[in-house]
Specification:
By secondary structure, the protein is mainly beta. It is built from two helices and ten strands, in the order ααββββββββββ.
């Protein structure tokens, strides 16, 4: 009982507490330099494609899950003057997943804040037969895409991740994943008119280690994200059938 109480308190902090600590201020984009926008594109790409997975265990045909997710980076890159310096910034999502035949899951999600709106989705394929046995590894490949829109810019990203997870107990399942995203940000409005309609391209590397907890229908996860030059966290809370 004490362990469950501790788990729930961790999630309250990670999911709800961080919402009020984010340093998102996209209005600074309009006056940002090209160097700053390039760093911002990498920072934004890190969080937009984060928290798509919390396990390599696919749902299975007829399975269903819905969850509230948060992903945040501890601080922006040094050249990024758009996000608040030395303050965490992030994004929140609602994600819905369904299980299809042949070990395929599909998911859709939407989120955003401060005028920046994102929609995305993808598929997850179980590379090996699904198992719920203790100490047996599940492996999955995930492909995703996102589109984000703000009044001064819009962006698209396409990503792929390979994930591994294993059941340690009836409700604890650690997982790891690694992958990359290809991000394009198109500048719509900037004080420097020579930058308007210019596209910025970035390759995002992400590595994740986390723990999933399933207590009856409640599905929780918390993870640490490592990017090329920064790190962050993601968490998920929902129900899974």
């Amino acid at each position: 009982m004490k362990a469950r109480f501790l788990i729930y308190n961790i999630f309250i902090f990670l999911i709800f507490g961080q919402v009020f600590m984010f340093g998102n201020d996209y209005n600074n984009f309009k006056s940002a330099s090209l160097t700053s926008i390039q760093a911002f594109t990498e920072d934004l790409g890190n969080i937009v494609g984060a928290s798509t997975l919390y396990s390599a265990r696919v749902l299975g045909f007829g399975g269903f899950a819905v969850s509230y997710k948060t992903a945040y980076q501890t601080k922006p890159l040094d050249d990024d003057t758009i996000f608040n310096k030395n303050k965490a910034f992030g994004i929140n999502y609602v994600q819905v997943e369904t299980g299809l035949p042949y070990r395929i899951d599909t998911y859709l999600r939407a989120g955003g804040d401060d005028g920046f709106n994102v929609i995305g989705g993808g598929i997850k394929y179980g590379i090996r037969n699904v198992t719920d046995e203790l100490y047996k590894v599940n492996i999955a490949l995930s492909l995703n895409s996102h589109m984000g829109l703000y009044k001064y810019f819009y962006m698209t990203s396409f990503g792929a991740q390979l994930a591994f997870s294993m059941r340690l107990t009836n409700y604890m399942m650690p997982y790891i994943s690694g992958g990359f995203d290809s991000v394009e940000l198109r500048i719509k409005t900037n004080n420097d008119i020579s930058l308007e309609d210019k596209s910025i391209f970035k390759k995002i590397q992400r590595y994740t280690i986390g723990m999933r907890f399933k207590i009856k229908l409640v599905n929780l996860s918390v993870a640490y994200d490592l990017y090329k030059e920064r790190s962050g966290f993601n968490a998920s809370a929902g129900i899974r059938f």
